[in-house]
Predict the 3D structure of the following.
Amino acid sequence: MVPLTPDIIINPISALGRYSQLLFHAFGAVTEVASYRKNLWRQMVKVGLDSLPIVMLAATFSGAVSTVQTSYQLVSPLIPRSIVGAIITSSMILELGAVVTGFILAGRVGARIAAELGTMRVTEQIDALETMGLNSVGYLIVPRVVAGVVMFPVLYIAACFCGIGGGMLIGELGGFVPLEEFIYGAREYFQPFDPIFGIIKSLVFGFLITSISCFKGYYTQGGAEGVGRATTQAAVASCVFLLLADLILAVLLL
Amino acid sequence: MKYSNEIKVGLTIIVAAVIFILGIRYFEDLPLFDSTYDLVAEFDDAGGLIGGNIVRVNGVSVGSVTSVYISETTGKVIVEFHVDPKIPVTEGSHATVGGFDALGVVRMDLTLGPSSSPRIPEGGLVATSATSDLMADMSARAPAMLDSVGRVLEELDGVLVEANTILSTPESDLRRTLAAARGSMSQVEALLAGERDRMVRILANADSLTADLDTAMGEDGEALTSLMGQMETMLATLNEDLERFQATNEQIDTLLRKLNEGEGTLGMLINDPSMYHRMDSTLNGLNALIADFQDNPGRYLKEMKIVDLF
Amino acid sequence: MIRVSHVNKSFGDKHVLKDVSVDIPEGETIAIIGRSGSGKSVLMKHLIGLMQPDSGSVTVDGIDINAITYAELRRVRRHFGVLFQGGALFDSMNAFENVAFPLRTFTEMTEADISRVVKECLAMVELEDVGAKLPSELSGGMQKRVALARAVALQPRYIIYDEPTSGLDPETSNTIDELIRNLADRLNVTSIVVTHDMHSVLNIADRAAFIYEGRMHWTGTIEALHHSDDQILKAFVTANEYKIGPS
């Protein structure tokens, strides 16, 4: 029998359906705090604190590199050097802070979540949880997603802090932009909504990365190879949907 | 000591929240821990001012604009801003919007009132004065420009005076011609005292000659006036600085020089050799006539009609 | 007791269970036997609601587990202990924590009580001294024994064994078989053993249910199994005996 609709249409739709079902299930389990409270703190440490060093490192360097490159590009005597400060600060706050953190988390946290849940699935640990009478979605997925949503903004703030700081530092020490001019430019163009937008973005990113990775991991099939596939898919899908969400948020909110 | 996950996570979140709030205050130019000094100003035209723009006092950045919106009741632009609480914004201070909108670097400049006056209270209204951007600058300079246009006109007036002077200078050929004519006339008058009536008519004829000359002068005066008009238009359109007028003055000098050298209609009129020669020959003829008259008055008294013909 | 009646289950075009019915009486040890891919693992998953039948019903103590809410199903599941094929120990926890996990999650017991119960359970599987070890540090047989200790920690009324002896050497298989036998005697639980290892079946089971190509082909006591002249069943039993050899 020839299917009426090709797989290329059916598969994404059914994936979306299962994804929403899983999330619906997870939201139903949010109230069972007792079952996942301990797990939540552990996930917050794993998603949040353990990612802090790499996020701070990446953000510092991207801030510093942007400063050097922007100074290199802005050679016109008509444009004050303080513009560099404005560009670095607003691009860190609006875009780089959240997106750099997002990509790191997609690779680091997303892949880890998918591998963890995938392994639990193929070794029947998820079934074991279920047969014990535990809500495996509540126990495994809720703490990971909540940890992502809570800790991502924290990482975003750390990224902005380090990125702008890195930019200021290299600008001053490397002689590209004096600190005062950097700060002057940053203040001149600062919009109070920008960091709020960044926080909204990081909340969405945190939710997307953790929930997509949980989904990919939770429904892993096919042994060790399946775990590998789920891990890759989780990281790739997280990045793709992160960029998509980035665009949608920018269109909706800016 | 090993801290529990709860403490580690909690601490991190608190530190992040503090950095977030302090960071926003820092980039908004708000003092990190003190309260702020909020003020309001009302403008007719915000000139592109937006929230986040810098507020300066004597060129020093002291705060920033919080928000800019149109008042629903008055339709004016309400600008809320905050400055360092240490800045004495006293009664009599006023705010202007400055900077260059096209480059996006708009700011608000605050001119402080006398330090003896009481401070404007928190949230109080700061007086404003009109926006001073490039166009406003130009409008402000317009009277001075009109002044210089006036000066040019005066100078043109001078040109006319000079033209008159040329006509009245003894060295002038025309003047000499006229002097010669007058000498001839007096001789004619002296000689024809008895024949006053006829002489009067001769003089009247000479008068009509000068009247013709006057008319000619008048026509060229109009040409000069239109030239002046063109220059005026040029000045008004170009809105140039005084250097430009200097050049115009030089042109006028050239014009005058050319006038002296006999170029141009007026110059031609004044300096036209053929006309001079014509008049000269006329006067020579007149002289010959008078000499002849002296020799044979009787003939001329009979043949007075010849003179009439002249 | 557990009653499976007229259960059908398909995965896509593959009809895995065809009108399967079986009764599992209280206190007995029943072996569900069949070849790999015959559908016995799928049937096992239906027993605890990990899979829902396309038609038919599964009742546990008179409750249709597919007609109740998820919360109620989870309450029913607490009567079950399941020993999964690979043990399914939580690899982030050590052996002690694995056994303690259901106690900590579902009981109000103090840590001291939990510690005592965990030690008892580990003693039951003869692994008193591996508590601090992670699953990755244990051999396959030890992992299964710890998993068994975890399965019985909440004193379930039903224990399901999924291929308890597969992948183990004959000696360890015998140890596991003995443990299953002992648990059934001591705790008076109902045991369901899903296996293709006839040697194990003959050692531990009271009854057997033979699934062939998705159908419940034969059910009866071990005694009856020996005397059955069903050709397909005989082929399966003798193939096993030939492979393993006489015990």
Q: What stands out?
A: The first strand of chain B starts at residue 37 and ends at 43. Residues 136-309 of chain B form one domain. Chain B has two domains: 36-132, 136-309. The mean pLDDT of chain B is 72.
